[in-house]
Design goal:
Length: about 425
Amino acid sequence: MKTRIVAGMAVMAAGAWAAGPAPAGGGAGQRMASAGEVAVRVRQITSGPAHHFFGYIGQCRTIPWNASGRYLLALETDFQDRLPGAGDAARVCLIDSREGERLRVVDRSLGWNPQQGTMFYWNPEQPETQFFFNDRDSRTGKVFTVLFDLTRGPNGGRVREYRYEATPVGNGGVAQNGGYFLAINYARMARLRPVTGYKDAWDWTTEVAAPADDGIHRVEVTTGERRLIVSFAQLKAKLAGTIARLEARHLFINHTLNNRNNDRVYFYCRGDFEGPREERVNVPFTVRPDGSELTAHTTFIGGHPDWEWGSRIIGSLDEQQVIYDTATRRIVEKLGGAEVFPNPGGDIALAPDGRWFVNSHRSGEHNHYTFLDRRTGRIVRSPPVFLGQWKSGDLRLDPAPCWNRSGDALVVPGIAADGTRQMFLLELVPTA
């Protein structure tokens, strides 16, 4: 019989690997955690027969919990064996941590996928009661973003729908300090990178390789004003002379990541992702939120970075977890290689206060999580979380760690004993 979830705690033995002390501000020095310090406890918080998940990675403070920590967001679905189509709604749910993880359905969405969910994000300007999620019109197939408020009626309600009829887009990344979100074309992504898009959504760019009226759209939360800050035509011009067969390649954008200061955006311009890896377009860019200083970066730090402070972003290079300064375009710090993080390029997330950093990797039928305390340099590893058969492809179960607001627990996806996709809590707990 297979062990599907290993509950309990795991602490690495002292002395397995050591380096110098961590520099001021939380640097690269590490040591293994000693007994009596901290460990990771795993607990399942949702259950079948329906499937429950949050989605995406905890990049850019994508936090499932509201401000008080009472409610967690979740999607509830009745299947996990195919991508959702235009008529497949997921239920938008709240998990009440004060009432034994009681789950309550508050809305539904037609704009979601198994990897990213519906791009949940609590509104930074009202994080106790308001959150964003994506949806699409059941009649037209046009994608839009919803702002939902828990105080609107007995079960909460929609405060606003951000609909743009000619160029329908959905949230791709909320500004960490609030005020705006960056929106992208999920119908175009469904065509060019199905795992990240919304199948059968309406796409006005089908025949255009690098449209001038699509790219990254900035949407003001209060007014709904939308403007295009980066177009595919601009990206094509930036890449001219560096990419073979550029004229024929249909470009798309992934991971519009706002930094902690609301003054920089990191994203990827991509193309041909369904073909051979060596033929793909996969170029990182930065841009200011007003569309200025569009910059292509030649240093590639993997596909799952997370912002640290200012212009510094955490990623991977040469089998090392590194910090790259997007302003100077230099690697400025190393957090450890494979001896610490078995897969430095795996899903990562930095806790809201910057103290704990988590990296994830797969081994066999399980996801594993490695925690680095950037204040003390200690390293703690979690028990494995079962992922079963969902190892690759459009339905894969990514590790996707998402921190809570106090930086001492995170939510991850896993497969429960009954085979359903569920949410698990990884808690950092004292062992003394």
